[in-house]
């Protein structure tokens, strides 16, 4: 879990995490990509990225607290996912701490708190205790997510993602009602562009039952876009593309989360197989090729693209970024 709260090393200064030496080939690759395209990873606190992102093998706790400035020096990493706020809302000052650590052209992909995007209030084990009265409620969404993220990140706010957790099975029959609730929440969110010119609200789901015309209409009416979640709980990328086409023209937000080889509940299996995340283990060439075409078409039409990748997608998210960036360059050459 990322933590940006500073603590010094006993000498009055925080420890320094050094970035690996810039690779001229990656600098050249980054220069060939459109400025509107921002690749990143879903987090940054992985010691196994030594030689890929970090100069050496730092402890994960040190990377979590102090690694973001070094991460942002990688030529291809111009965004990153902030998932920490999913578990507890972040304050304006915490968002401002993140913004202060990265260059002016860096943008963040931020997940909304589960207190707004989960239909259940859960206990410490993750078991649902009772229905969540704030599920997709406009007031908490504004107070605990939109307002502090914009105030803290300012122009560095990129994609503000409402990732709706898997619904209880009994709720899947209530999709029309829930879409109406989502519609009202999105309608209450003010235009981001005065504060964050590159900002976009995006909605990601983990149940394919959401993917109906009324869902697309709610996004369009609310000025939001669809966050394409590449996860084994959802259809493959080609089956999600009709939603993006229905919302065109518009930005691309994609979170490549989990290789479908592991199934819908395969995070732990992927974690065990891929750690320490220093090499590509299961390249997903079909997803990569399709996503590269979507990216090239989006940025080629002058739209922004935010694409974050998890280590659980292919084994090492920095290497996945490099491979995907190369695929985009080849399409544009």
UniProtKB/TrEMBL annotation:
Gene3D superfamilies: Protein of unknown function UPF0759. Pfam families: DUF72. This is DUF72 domain-containing protein. It comes from Thauera linaloolentis (strain DSM 12138 / JCM 21573 / CCUG 41526 / CIP 105981 / IAM 15112 / NBRC 102519 / 47Lol).
